[in-house]
Amino acid sequence: MKFQLITAALIVLVGCSHQESDPSDNAAAPSSAATPIACAGASYYADSLAGNPTASGEPYVPSKLTAAHRTLSFGTKVRVVREGRGEVTVTINDRGPFIDGRIIDLSRAAAEKVDLITDGVADVCIYAAD
């Protein structure tokens, strides 16, 4: 029990220690867009994870436009914009990423839409989907 409490406290502290960029300082957003939810790094799932369950219970399907976010509710749709490279609307169905400086993990199909495959990690802004 003591171990579980310590582990939970560490998870909360690590989650709270992450500092995302201030979306109002980011000029990457299209002029027609609303204020971003957040702007920071994006990465994508390894192909080897295909079929594994996500936190929502759905299996990870690389060809679907899905993503992981630490706090957004499952089923939330967000628009991911990589300035000059593309944008994609995804559905949140998993938790993560749990690496400092990253705000979203994309499925392979979503990563392809924002030209992320070669770079692996890149800055994006996420917006509430229309």
Short description:
The protein is an alpha/beta fold.
3D architecture notes:
This protein is of the alpha/beta class. The chain has helices at 2-17, 108-113; strands at residues 38-44, 66-68, 77-82, 86-94, 102-106, 122-128. The chain has a single domain (21-128), classed as Barwin-like endoglucanases, CATH 2.40.40.10. The chain is built from 2 helices and 6 strands, in the order H-E-E-E-E-E-H-E. The longest helix is centred in the first third of the chain and has 16 residues, at 2-17. The relative contact order is 0.24. Mean pLDDT is 82; it is low at 1-32.
CATH superfamily descriptor = RlpA-like domain
Tally of separate domains = 1
Briefly note the CATH topology name: Barwin-like endoglucanases
The helix/strand series, from N terminus to C terminus, equals: HEEEEEHE
Beginning-to-end CA distance, first to last residue: 44 Å
**What is the approximate shape?**
globular
Tally of contiguous helical segments: 2
What is the strand tally?
6
- Please tell me the overall pLDDT: 82
This entry's quaternary arrangement is single chain
Q: Assign the CATH class.
A: Mainly Beta
Specify the biggest β-sheet: 6 strands, mixed, barrel
- Secondary structure: helix percent: 10-25%
- Strand portion: 25-35%
Supply the helix-strand structural class. alpha/beta
The second-level CATH architecture is Beta Barrel
Q: Biggest sheet, strands in spatial order?
A: 1-5-2-4-3-6
| Rg | 15 Å
SSE layout:
Blueprint: H1 2-17, E1 38-44, E2 66-68, E3 77-82, E4 86-94, E5 102-106, H2 108-113, E6 122-128
Parallel strand pairs: 1-5, 2-4
Antiparallel strand pairs: 1-6, 2-5, 3-4, 3-6
